[in-house]
Amino acid sequence: MPGVARLPPLDPADAEPAVRAALERLPPLAVFATVANAQGSFVNWLRFGGDCLDARWFDPVLRELAILRVARLTPGAEYEWVQHVPILLAVGGTPEQVAALEADDLEADALGEDGRLVVRFTGQVVRDATPDDATFAAMSARFTPAEITQLLLVIGQYMMVARVMATAQLEVDAVLGADVLAGVERSSRARRQDAAPAPEQRPGAPAQPQRG
After folding, report:
1. 35 pLDDT exceeds 70?
2. What would the DSSP string read from start to end of 114-178?
3. Which of 12, 48, 68, 179 fits a 20 to 30 Å CA distance from 22?
4. Can you give the residue ranges of every domain in the chain?
């Protein structure tokens, strides 16, 4: 029989309306229902998590290599690994990259030059809080300050989530990582559309008809 998680999932009956509505939109994964216990932070945490997965801010393949490295370095975070392998494949990664990370072959050709650098940077941040001078210099030569900072936020987000998973002792309930990514991309597109300015109306021009 599957084990019982240390932290119970939030009962929807006990959820505040905004939290309940968010859970109803999400794939039915234990990690979401567990983090939802922090009701005051849950909705904003979801928004931040969506920003971390936004391909506009950092290359998605490199991002997923970093997340999988975090999972690999976190005892008890198999849940994170299992969910993000299909995400890596969905955004253009390869089974050879997955195999290299699983084998801790950080110099594998399959990772590519940028992938090897990002994985090395990620490992040093996870283990030592900061990369060594040589690694930071190489990152600075390849990526902008904005990209490096975004990657640090991604690493921090998934270190946090991995520790929730490990502390709660979550068992893999379903592999829906690709569904999560698809939902994030839909939400991101909707937010961008909502934020886009309306077309400027020329003085004296007839109003545009409303579409039903």
Report:
1. yes
2. HHHHHHHHHHHHHHHSS--HHHHHHHHHHS-HHHHHHHHHHHHHHHHHHHHHHHHTPPP----HH
3. 68
4. 58-182
**172 band by pLDDT with thresholds 50, 70 and 90:** confident
Which pair of tokens denotes residue 195? Answer: 């934020």
pLDDT over 50 (residue 49): yes
Residue keyed to tokens 């976190």: 74
- pLDDT higher than threshold 90 for residue 118: yes
Q: Is 170 exposed, middle or buried (CB count within 10 Å of its CB: 0-12, 13-18, 19+)? A: buried
Amino acid at 129: A
Rounded Cα–Cα distance for residues 121 and 126 (Å): 9
How is residue 38 written in tokens? 């922090």
User: CA 11, 166, 152, 117 torsion: positive or negative?
Assistant: negative
pLDDT for residue 167 is more than 70:
yes
Q: Which CATH architecture has domain 58-182?
A: Up-down Bundle (1.20)
Cβ neighbours for 47, distance < 8 A, ≥ 6 positions apart: none
